[in-house]
Amino acid sequence: MARAATTSDVFNAVAEPRRRQILNLLKGGERSVNDLARSLRVRQPQASKHLRVLKEVGLVHVRESGQQRLYTLQDEGLKPIHDWVTSFTQLRSESFDRLDQYLQDLKVRKRGS
Amino acid sequence: MARAATTSDVFNAVAEPRRRQILNLLKGGERSVNDLARSLRVRQPQASKHLRVLKEVGLVHVRESGQQRLYTLQDEGLKPIHDWVTSFTQLRSESFDRLDQYLQDLKVRKRGS
DNA sequence: TTGACATATTCCGATATGGGAATATAATTC
DNA sequence: GAATTATATTCCCATATCGGAATATGTCAA
């Protein structure tokens, strides 16, 4: 048996750095394929291929707008990773402290907005 | 170019389900190779190979004890993934709420222990 | 219809994989 | 030293990869 397909689950899809870059870019909102390709300094077909993988595992959503395809982040798809990784960081009290700090920051920011 | 090596970074190392299983088992504390192999229902060499990968990316630590090698979890190694994934879940207010709830649970549990 | 533009798909090649099997290395016991 | 046990390494193979290049599909405008 070889390595599992990149489309088999979110963990494999996200193992590729370029795909993480794409997700990072999509934090800023909807983006077209060419737009993403330019930002990544990658040929258009490569961008399309990566987006296909991300779509298959449910990390992005596509909207058709004329001849363009606008991709959006679907961060709910990251839940398996989030749950898995926090099940580890929960173990250490350090993490509790970091989390306390983190939540305080959030509250402050929330109040300010 | 082919896919990146599993030892290239933590994301790739953790993309393999068997290796996530190993990390899960190590939550319970130190374990020998044969012990892990039995729990995973895998031949010993496969266990050794996976452990090698996990060691190379800094997710486990080995201690020599006679002819045994006892492996321990090193969850600090998961920080890159933790940081990356939370940078996304932070975006949604839903996550804030879940985190609020989560922290309350923690406080209760802390008090109880 | 024709041409221009945006995106997706297919074929290729070099490469890394993960499991199996066999073997090597190392420590313990007799 | 020889046998036993625990672990690591090597070789093999089927498979999936990612990027490049070429091509196909789809949309718009004149």
Helix content of chain A: 55-70%
Assembly type: homodimer
Q: Count of helices of chain A?
A: 6
Give the terminus-to-terminus CA distance of chain A: 52 Å
Radius of gyration of chain A: 17 Å
3D architecture notes:
2 copies of one chain form a homodimer. Helix content of chain A is 59%, strand content 12%. The first copy, chain A, contains 6 helices and 3 strands. The N and C termini of chain A lie far apart (52 Å). In chain A, 27% of the residues are buried. The model of chain A has no long low-confidence stretch (mean pLDDT 86). At the A-B interface, helix 1, helix 2, helix 5 and helix 6 of A face helix 2, helix 5 and helix 6 of B. The structure holds a DNA duplex (30 and 30 nucleotides).
Write the layout of secondary structure elements.
2 copies of one chain form a homodimer.
Chain A: H1 10-14, H2 17-26, E1 31-32, H3 33-40, H4 44-56, E2 60-65, E3 68-73, H5 79-89, H6 93-112
Antiparallel strand pairs in A: 1-3, 2-3
Helix pairs in contact in A: 3-4
The first copy, chain A, binds a DNA duplex (30 and 30 nucleotides) through residues 1-6, 16, 18, 32-34, 42-52, 66-69.
Offer a concise description of the structure.
The structure is a homodimer of 113-residue chains. Chain A is of the alpha+beta class. Chain A contains six helices and three strands, in the order H-H-E-H-H-E-E-H-H.
